[in-house]
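Q: I have 266 residues here and want to know how they pack in 3D. Can you give me a structure?
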Amino acid sequence: MKYSIYTLILLIVLGACKENRSTTPQSTSEIENPEHGKAHKHWSYAGETGPEHWAEIEVESDCNGKFQSPINMVNYKENNSLKRIDLHYAEETKIHDVTNNGHSIQYNFESGDYIMVNGLKYDLKQVHFHEPSEHTIDGVRYPLEMHLVHINDSGQYTVISVMAKEGASSLPFDFLESFLPLKAGENKKVDRPFNMNHNLPENKDYFFYTGSLTTPPCTEGVNWYILKEPITVSLEQVNLLKELMPINNYRNEQPQNGRELYVTGN
C-alpha cells in the first residue's frame, strides 16, 4: 500500500499523541517511579496513604522503627537530676515566613533562638501544629499540640512539645494567626520578630524520652521534651487552625518498646 508524504506525517503525529496520553499520570498525587515503574503516592493522614502505610510509601524512612513517636506519657519515672530546659529565646528573633505545607501550618524562624542540650546547641528552625494532640498524657489527648523543632550542626533533632487547651484567648496566637488563612501549598513572608517565651507556660516541668519525628521520614534519635503544663487558647483560635489543616493531622500512639520515660521532680 502506498502513502503520500502528508499521510505518513499525520500517522506519525497521531501515534506520538496516543503514546503521550498513555503515560500521563492519572492523578497529581501519583508520581511515576522510573526505577520500579510504579506510581508513588505522597503520605497523608488517612486512607491508603495514612500513617499505617508510611513505611511502605517512604521506603528509605525510619517509619517502621522500634523507637517511634508519639507515645502516651504513662508509667514514667520521676528523675530529680533532670535540669530545666536551657532556653535561649530572644525578643528580636524573626519569623521568616509561614507556610501551609498540606500537613500543618508551619512558621519558619530565622537564626537567633536556640536551646542547649548536653552541651550542644540546637537552633530553633520551625514551629508547627497538630490538632488534636499527638502525644497524650496519662491517656488524655489535648485539643492542640505545638512542636518547636530544633536542629544542631550534626543534623540531630530536639523537639519541645507544648499542649494547648481551650480557655482564654492567647495574644501570641493572635499574632501568629494574623498571617492566616493560607491555602495548601501557599507561603507568606512574615519578617517580624516573635518572642517564643510568650507562647510557653510559666511552669517548664516536662516529660523526657527519646523517640522520632512524627512525620516521614520518622527519623529516630530525637530528644523529646513534653511540657506538663498546657497553654490556653480560645475555641476560635483552635478552629482557625483546624479549618486550614487536614482533619486529625496526628499520628497514632506508638509502642514504648522498653524505652525509659522520665518526668522532672517536684
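Q: Anything worth noting?
A: The two ends are 94 Å apart (CA to CA). Residues 5-41 form one domain.
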